[in-house]
Amino acid sequence: MSQGDLLHVVTADDISDSRKLFGRAIVWGSALVVALVAAAQTAQHAGLMEFGFSNWRPTLFAYILWSICLCWSQVLIRGEHGKRTLFVLPAALFVVSLTVFPILFGLIIAFSSWNLASPLGRQFNGLDNVRQMWSDPFYWNALRNMVWYSLAILVEYAVAFGLALLLNAEIRARKFFRVAFLLPLMLSPVAVSWMIGKSMLEIRFGPIARFARWIGWDSPSFFGSPEIARATIMLLDAWTFIPFMMIMILAGLQAIPKELTEAARVDGAGPWKTFWEITFPLMLPVSVTAILIRIIFKLKLADIVINLTAGGPGGATDTVTSFIFREYRDRSNVGYGTLLAMVYLVIIIITMTILMKVADRFARPRT
Amino acid sequence: MSEAIFRDSEADLAFRTRRLAGKAVIYILLIAWAIVCLFPIYWTATTSFKIAPNVMQGALIPWVDYTPAWLGWRSLGMSPDTIGAESTVRDEFVKRFFNSAITAVASSSIAVVLGSLAAYGLSRFSYKFGFMRNSDISFFFLSQLILPPVVLALPFLVLYKQLALLDTRVGLILLYTLTVLPIVIWIMRDQFESIPTELEEAALVDGLSIWGAFFAIILPIALPGMIAAFILSLVLTWNEYFFAALLTSTHANTLPVMVASQTGSQGINWWAMAALSFAAILPLIVIGVVLERYLIKGMTAGAVK
């Protein structure tokens, strides 16, 4: 894409100096407004002067005004080129204001002791939070759980691949099966955690517990021991997200030309061999994409855990997100929670970069 | 004469039975997984019509195992005899339902508008924002997918408190738009790259401006992709729980928060919970069944090159 525009536009832009001047004026003018409003609000916040602001919204509105002026000025100053910028600029401004500022702000919070319940307010405490994290067994436990949860993706992938192969076979009522297989993805994890976790897995009356008793598990308990509880959460999460991988793999399967598999059959390869020699290698790029996206979603896993086990028993099912959620909910500990989240973000970025590099090498078609 | 001249050899016949057996296995597996997928939904739907003894007996099939009752739906104020009467629970439910609907639709719409424009720009023009070129900008947008919600949650909690945006729909809409924007850009970039640039070139030669060409020529072609992106966003935002649980309390609560707040307190009062859960998932089941084509289109964007 860097070789230049795909769409060449030849325009005779004839922009007068006064128009350019006006464009610059509104950007700097509105920036000045933001600065003034922010300064006034900071002054009031620090108790220097009283302006009668009840919250920080005026600064927000000034910022929005500045954003609009910035977009408008692009057209004023740069004409046709500015109009092109206008395609990307709103989205970019939106994302930058909603992620970069909060993350910078979050970094400040992360190194402070800030308990929303205490009247002291925010106090900078240097590396105390890091030290606390270092000796917090529950956080490390949650991180370890995330590794387990992520490893479960391999099993999910195998199941999803199998289902995609089934759907890709010559079958009747394919649309019915496709819709039926897709439905779990549509359900809200919170509803699922009640529907399955709290009622179907209920020890006395739940149908799955009854079934477990019927096949000979005398006293089924799905959240009793740590290992079983973790497996149950994995199964629930897999149930909702297998359709997602299945659909991606199915699309990949359908893109494989029929001639290839037919040629393999003519050459005398059985279905087993055809799969491993033709289908699977061709599916590698799609598989890698599906698994990577699945990992990204898995790292956000929280809803089911929060609603079903609240991390128990003994933190065996805790995810990082649910742990931080409780850290805030139960203890209002914003400073420490934010630091944990930031560390998590750094770990995720490092892991995903390594994974993507490895995947890139792995998925490249071998010639 | 009774012997047929052309007949299948022994080997071919064996092949046919093997094929039939293979078919049978495929169908058994398909039906088994369909049951795995559909049974929880069936269970929830039927449980909402049960009363206490049915639940304890483990009744499964309505009219055979038990006679359906309106108990669960009555507690929600939505059974035939209570639908006309006043019901605080129903009002609460309707309020949450509209909160969910408004936030989901609004944030998906904003995301589709912003995301489509950005994706179109990135697929057609080369930009330079400071050191960032097109591929960097694309990566910047898509990298937001990796950002776990928990990183943003606490800073936003504090920021929203200062901005008086806590417990408002606007606050939720902004965050939801942010979370689905990368997915929309991902889908739409794939869409626009499959549209040949000759179309706009012709339009530009005919005297349309860039934006004119975008609205008149490209938008209609890319519409199915936009619908796909919209529906996928709708599903994700409708089901979102984490931000809603942290950032709302009484006014802007969404349905998942209501469902979650009821689960703990209800005990064995399954019929009411089942009715509530079923009412919460029903819109998405309808969307899933009716618009399945678009959903699949959205999910497979960019997967197959």
Keywords:
heterodimer; A: 367 residues; mainly alpha; MetI-like fold; 2 domains; 13 helices; flat; B: 305 residues; two-stranded antiparallel ribbon; 2 strands
Note down, in words, how this protein is organized.
The complex is a heterodimer of chains A (367) and B (305). The two termini of chain A are 26 Å apart. With 367 residues, chain A is mainly α. Chain A has two domains: 17-110; 131-363, Orthogonal Bundle (MetI-like fold), CATH 1.10.3720. Helix content of chain A is 74%, strand content 1%. A two-stranded antiparallel ribbon of chain A has the order 1-2. By secondary structure, chain B is an all-alpha fold. Chain B folds into two domains: 10-75, no CATH class; 88-299, MetI-like (MetI-like fold), CATH 1.10.3720.10. Chain B has helices at 10-47, 52-57, 71-75, 88-124, 134-143, 149-163, 169-193, 198-205, 210-239, 242-247, 255-265, 270-290, 292-299, and strands spanning 128-129, 132-133. Chain B has a two-stranded antiparallel sheet with strand order 1-2. In chain B, 47% of the residues are buried. The chains are: A mainly alpha (367), B mainly alpha (305). The interface between A and B is large, with 103 and 105 residues.
